[in-house]
């Protein structure tokens, strides 16, 4: 890359400038919550904490992350994310592969059947009865199995498979390779970026889900982190009519605790992305496989 | 799909060719089985719940024993006084969001692709996706401070430039713009991920060949990168259009106030605020069904149009 | 079109299968109390481990309570109650956002013996009418002497649905929630007394605005508030409308239809116009308004007394010599004054039809209401958790916080005579909070505590159905009037709309009940 032209430099400069500006303004809300989580309470409720902490302290954070319930919930969430993401990636890739063969009769119908469920669903009550029927109430399985395939992710990976050159498979087929072999030996190894993407999407989904745990999990020991977080942060507004009991008003967790809980339960999932990025940045060298 | 009148003979010919294709690829069909079982059990089995929308559902009696009310729930929605205004707001805010916000993540992905410094690229990618993880309550609270006429940073700037402070959050004319802007702020980084990945999936050989031909970076961007991610762009656009009737209920609920209801109230917020769906499974199902039906129709239309004009389609 | 007709066929087949599946699965909900297979892992151990554990063959009970941030089963009160009542109880809790989940649990027949929830009369009546609850009257007659002694007839009447009682209540424990909190050091600086009338209030706010006693420059705010609040406590009472429905000529009338509504709106709109009410009031959220007062930028704010500890901490850090107090009931132009006085219930405890041990559930409640046990439950042991002086109970910290702070979540009904006194121990945990509480609740004369009669009304269908929508309409409209986005010339048209939206039917229902009360 020697001998860069002036136009190239200007282009680079412009791009960097735009990205830095964007980075700064999008960092703002996170920086704000982060500062609140390490500031003293009086400064927070006086509206004095902006991007930088006021009266720096780590007691709140320590209080939050060392509580037994937090650690137990964290463990549950990690378990759900790991099992859920692996299982989802597997079944989604498995389903998407045949669906990417448009020339096969019936595939179009199946895709429409899937897309239909993106828009229409039975609603809370039938879903609850189903989970109950399956004996999954108060079981972490209730948070994983019904979410195994996200149609959105299915379509993304299907679209990616379609974009791979057909010549790849044809040569393998001539050599007599079976479908499974082609999928696992040829297609998936070339699918790093898309697998990383939907893997991230699945992981974030499983991590962020609080509604299903709220419905299906009763035991304190099985609650995932987002449910714990939601319970602490929700309706912390003391004027909320929902929980009009005064004893609740007197026990509202301080805003610093709420911010610290948000931070402590967001950081683990946020850190997944940087680790996945190496799969994004490589770029695919199909030639190396073909040859 | 649209060639309706095929002669019978040709049809038989096509039929047997079909069978040959199916029989030759049974292994591929077999791969579908787990996915289909999943679909049937977890998605279609509970689907009977949709009929709640046509009932006066009694959760203790169950679907089988609840009273039928026909379209009464839909009438309740459509005949509400403000429905037309609310529907118009929903469509407008949603359209603004699509027209203005849909292209930005694509541009962002293209820009990031031009960055050669890996550390910088990864840092920026991570930072701009952070707001996705914060709830609207937090984001809205922050914007309320930033845009405040007394002491908010935006108005401080306006004042220092000699302008009059603007009461952003109570200005009916500005509200939709604020909604679109903050939605963009929160989600562009997250929405760019799928495009960044798609760019990474483009064969490197194409760029090498173009470089040898002397194509510049901008030219490569337009002639290789963009066409390379066109399928995923169309996929995302069609799906995005399918959620047209969801203009961001949670977001607007945390941001609006009576002075901007006129332009800001959307279907979701209206139903919530009026307590129309409270404890009323039938009504909330009816509202949901209305949204779903419109959304599904839009996806089908979007897919057909895309097939016709761009030769790209989901199915 | 071939593809699309196949598509239709596929859909039809799929939906047929769905219907079949559904028919099998949905029939047996409701009566099927223990149908679901035992869930893996989880609470099984505690449930299965103890059926015959207690000496007198008392069954283990399952109780569902409201959300708290600690495990019920590990909280000291659980152990104390087990010792005193002889019953082993397994506690589960609802999430914060609880109605949806409770509906599902009730409808699917989870076998809870006791459910203690926040008082939601519409939900309670709905369960009762749909036959999901057990009639408690015969059980109480047989096993509940302590319950009878603890709960007044008035409460029982208010909870009757079609003549039967399905819940044991915990009544509200105090009268007044909120008022205007004012900076008394600002009052001194501008040389004015605590206002006693609305006119004096205006004079004070004017002085706050013009003299800027806090030195806040262009960020100075006289009175702040939040945008989802259109009826300012204390001020709205001065216009004779402390409650959402008030008596006018023997009839209950909602605020919008009240003849005084115009005067109230004109008064507050004038405050806004003169800049005495925060110009950003409409956009303010709860937290924004409080930030202004906490940081010393606002001279007055309308808050609940439970907010005082946070406010006090923050304000005195920001402005070390700041002082504040609640404004007592203000007299309006027509000489009226008053606060809305709470009536009704804080919590309700019900026994679902699916309960396997309803009699034991009542016995357990009865045992928990035995006076000594109840006192222990409410405030603990004298000398360990509290000290007593006359009828004033002062908590001993931190023992009280550690072992009794969440005790009220364990109650299933409370003694209506003694509990409000015990309960004040909680307020005494913080002297500043107690002082504010005391000003509003103990030092205000009885005639300004105007009871919210609808708090004790039984379930009324029309009222219950349209109440939230009507309230939302009034709030929105009033906020617009205050901010000048609407003006009073449109009042009659809006009232007509309001009547049609359900007020007319509600008013009839409410007054039919009120006349025969």
UniProtKB/TrEMBL annotation, chain A:
Keywords, sorted A to Z: Cell membrane, Membrane, Transmembrane, Transmembrane helix, Transport
Record protein name field: Carbohydrate ABC transporter membrane protein 2 (CUT1 family)
Entry's localization field: Cell membrane
Membrane topology designation: Multi-pass membrane protein
Chief location category: membrane
Species of origin: Cohnella lupini
GO cellular component: plasma membrane
Keyword DNA damage in annotation: no
From TrEMBL, chain B:
InterPro entries: ABC_transporter_permease, MetI-like, MetI-like_sf
Signal peptide: none
GO cellular component: plasma membrane
Gene Ontology BP annotations: transmembrane transport
Subcellular location: Cell membrane
Gene3D superfamilies: MetI-like
Primary location class: membrane
Domain ABC transmembrane type-1: 87-302
Family annotation (Pfam families): BPD_transp_1 (PF00528)
Membrane topology qualifier: Multi-pass membrane protein
PROSITE patterns recorded: ABC_TM1 (PS50928)
Similarity remark: Belongs to the binding-protein-dependent transport system permease family.
Name by which UniProt lists this protein: Carbohydrate ABC transporter membrane protein 1 (CUT1 family)
Organism from which the protein derives: Cohnella lupini
UniProtKB/TrEMBL annotation, chain C:
Compositional bias annotation for Low complexity: 31-54
Recorded superkingdom: Bacteria
Signal sequence residues: 1-22
InterPro entries to which the protein is assigned, alphabetical: Bact_solute-bd_prot1
Location of region: Disordered: 31-60
SUPFAM superfamilies, per database record: Periplasmic binding protein-like II
Keywords: Signal
Signal as UniProt keyword: yes
Protein name: Carbohydrate ABC transporter substrate-binding protein (CUT1 family)
Native species: Cohnella lupini
